[in-house]
Write a structure and sequence with these properties.
3 strands, 3 helices, about 120 residues, alpha+beta, three-stranded mixed beta sheet
Length: about 120
């Protein structure tokens, strides 16, 4: 309910991806945002890059953020893990504009702007 821009197309893609994931031995699927940027921890230590080697951001190892849009799992998977993300999950990268999660005034505004872009091409 806090991801109001999630499209029917993405939900159908998630269902198809879940079925494919199960066939490949995964036990669940959840949606993520993909980032390829230089990240640092709270001690300003690089997380996903070597500060001495300036790679192009598109060549950095991706980092994935759980975006709370979609969780697909079976009763058996939930029973084994006790969580909506199973013991052997797969991910689905979702569209950044669709994945806006409204948690505060800032993300509410981001959702409004994303809605305009998605529905009006602005």
């Amino acid at each position: 309910t806090t991801n109001p821009l999630l499209s029917e197309t993405t939900i159908r893609l998630a269902l198809d991806s879940y079925e494919e994931s199960i066939a490949k031995g995964y036990d669940s699927l959840f949606s993520v945002n993909k980032f390829q940027s230089r990240f640092y921890n709270s001690d300003i230590k690089p997380i996903n890059h070597d500060a001495a080697e300036l790679l192009r951001t598109q060549d950095l190892q991706p980092i994935y953020e759980e975006n709370s849009c979609l969780y697909l799992f079976s009763r058996g998977s939930f029973k084994m893990s006790g969580a909506r993300i199973g013991l052997n999950p797969n991910i689905l990268i979702t569209n950044e504009l669709e994945s806006v999660d409204i948690d505060d005034d800032n993300t509410w505004e981001k959702a409004n702007i994303s809605h305009k872009i998605l529905n009006h091409g602005i």
